[in-house]
């Protein structure tokens, strides 16, 4: 088996689609941490670049024309992932509608896989968004990591070249990804022995 096949596949899901969003800066930073690891390969699923429909079909009915093409840009990548990192801001004490929409379009893609969180915002650092995401992902049979990366007043944490200025944030990112790797490997091995049944 090649090194690439052995790597854990991590999908970084960028939740914000707002114009002028800060998400690309945060995403590039956490992607940099992932790129430094030999045990993980990264796929950035940017919902701003791969928008999904907001109108769902009635239960038991096929999706509207064109929906399949939109989902094809996202669904196979989520299915292939061994683990996820959600990059999310906090909007009105919660997470963006675009992220909830992407979550709701999928189901088994999340099953028995770990989710880590990188949140950002003002004084709360996006933690209220993460707390709500934990409830949602539990319903979808995902395992969320206890430790998160929370960037308080995120706009002041990066220099003009978008380099992180706070070494404690870098340490938090490494710790979270170490935990994500443990869970991703354990759950991948478990799914290989016994497929998960929701």
Give the helix tally.
Answer: 7
Q: What is the global morphology?
A: globular
Distance between the termini: 30 Å
Chain oligomer state: single chain
Low-confidence stretches: none
Radius of gyration: 17 Å
Q: What about the largest sheet?
A: 6 strands, parallel
Report the order of strands and helices.
HEHEHHEHEHEEH
| Helix content bin | 25-40%
- Share of β-strand residues: 15-25%
Determine the mean pLDDT: 95
What is the number of E strands? 6
- Return the structural class: alpha/beta
What does this structure look like?
This protein has 198 residues and is an alpha/beta fold. The protein has helices at 3-6, 23-35, 67-72, 75-80, 97-104, 127-139, 167-193, and strands at 8-14, 40-46, 83-89, 114-121, 143-144, 149-152. Strands 1, 2, 3, 4, 5 and 6 form a 6-stranded parallel sheet that branches. Strand 4, helix 6 and strand 5 (143-144) form a beta-alpha-beta unit. The longest helix has 27 residues, at 167-193. The mean pLDDT is 95.
Features:
198 residues; alpha/beta; six-stranded parallel beta sheet; 39% helix; 18% strand; globular
Task: Summarize the entry for a quick read.
The chain is an alpha/beta fold and 198 residues long.
